[in-house]
Write a structure and sequence with these properties.
- By secondary structure, the chain is α+β, with helices and mostly antiparallel strands.
- It folds into two domains: 118 residues, OB fold (Dihydrolipoamide Acetyltransferase, E2P), CATH 2.40.50; 216 residues, D-amino Acid Aminotransferase, Chain A, domain 1, CATH 3.30.470.30.
- Helix content is 16%, strand content 33%.
- The chain contains eight helices and 24 strands.
- The strands form five sheets. Strands 12, 15, 16, 17, 18, 19, 20 and 21 form an eight-stranded mixed beta sheet that branches.
- Helix 4 packs across helix 5.
């Protein structure tokens, strides 16, 4: 579960040009920054930081957000959505409040996760009509879900991984979808749910038309292919696709309980495509190999790199980085979300 609300310490309080009433807060253990009322906080203060995408409950302590942030989610939940905004030309990504207004917090240790305690959930868009289907179970236990932390939550990477080579790919705005082949059985799932093997679930119908199940039977390898499913009525379809497309970003070897490396992923997809006689797409690759933390020296620099175009859209959702080799037994993965994309994002 994403840590949307954590206890943090103010590192710096910086002035905002041409503003007599606002200041910029930066924090010790995260790369996020947010705007606050002038004089409200000083360096060393401890409080609760709420990340962007937080959906705060209806509560008097958050009522000052009523005019700007009140939303009703498709689930019927009412609350306040936090998103990336600009105030006086300064980027603000989240909300910082004094810890004293939350008496229910008894453990005031910095970095403590208080997301559940404060009833904070992640803002979610309504699932598209094209992604409906007959649910038969949860996401399969044999494969981990896709997940990358935002770079703002990993400031230590700038020092730890200067010599590490990463694959850099485009982060696409669609819906996470997985295709599973295990001992002759083929299934399709969303990020949280497995669906019945029928055409009511659009990705399953797509995979049948692609004949992906047959290709995997020929290869006879127990794998999960994870990717972004995109097209009409999925999210905002910022690429303007008129037909459905699936872009692979990860492959899990079920038998070995391990991710394929980047080179293994490319080779596996070549094998699949040779059988299909058509192309199973990979997410666009921006750099096959890059020592990103030798290229950039700051959070601002790596964020700026993510502000480029997408396949068809003016701004892509961002970049995803995966280490080419394992570090301490696992691949290092993280994402960088474009601020220009966030500032132009609609509910």
């Amino acid at each position: 579960m994403r840590k949307l609300a954590t206890i943090q310490t103010v590192k710096d309080v910086l002035p905002i040009e041409k503003s007599d009433f606002l200041e910029l807060l930066k924090f010790n253990d995260i790369g996020w920054q947010c705007v606050a009322k002038k004089g409200e906080f000083k360096s060393g203060d401890i409080g609760v930081f709420f990340e962007v995408d937080s959906f705060l409950p209806i509560d008097d302590r958050f009522s000052f957000l009523e005019k700007t942030s009140y939303r009703k989610m498709f689930t019927g939940d009412e609350g306040y959505r936090l998103r990336t905004i600009k105030l006086r030309g300064t980027l603000s990504q989240g909300l910082f409040l004094p810890i004293d207004i939350f008496p229910e917090i008894t453990d005031k240790t910095v970095l403590t996760d208080v997301t559940e305690l404060l009833n904070v959930i992640k803002w979610e868009r309504e699932p598209s009509i094209s992604m409906s289907g007959d649910i038969v179970g949860d996401y399969p236990a044999h494969t981990p879900r896709s997940h990358q932390d935002r770079i703002q939550n990993c400031p230590e990477y700038f020092d730890l991984y200067k010599d590490v080579v990463f694959e850099r790919t485009m982060k696409l705005e669609g819906t996470s979808t997985s295709f599973h082949y295990l001992d002759g059985e083929f299934d399709a799932s969303s990020h949280n749910t497995t669906y019945a093997r029928n055409e009511k679930f659009t990705p399953y119908k797509y995979s049948m038309e692609l004949e992906l199940d047959n290709a995997l039977k020929v290869l006879n390898k127990n794998v999960t292919i994870q990717g972004e499913f995109m097209g009409p009525k999925i999210q905002k379809n910022i690429e303007g696709f008129t037909e459905f497309k699936f872009f692979v970003y990860n492959i899990w070897d079920i038998s070995k309980s391990d991710w394929l490396s980047a080179s293994e992923r490319y080779s596996f997809m070549d094998e699949v495509n040779a059988i299909l006689g058509k192309e199973l797409l990979h997410v666009p690759i921006l750099d096959k190999e890059i020592k990103i933390f030798s290229v950039v020296n700051s959070l601002d620099e790596i964020l700026a790199m993510a502000d480029g175009p997408s396949i068809n859209a003016k701004y892509r959702e961002g970049d995803v980085y995966k280490s080419i080799e394992k570090i301490d037994g696992s691949y290092v993965q993280f994402k960088v979300i474009s601020n220009k994309y966030l500032l132009n994002e609609k509910d």
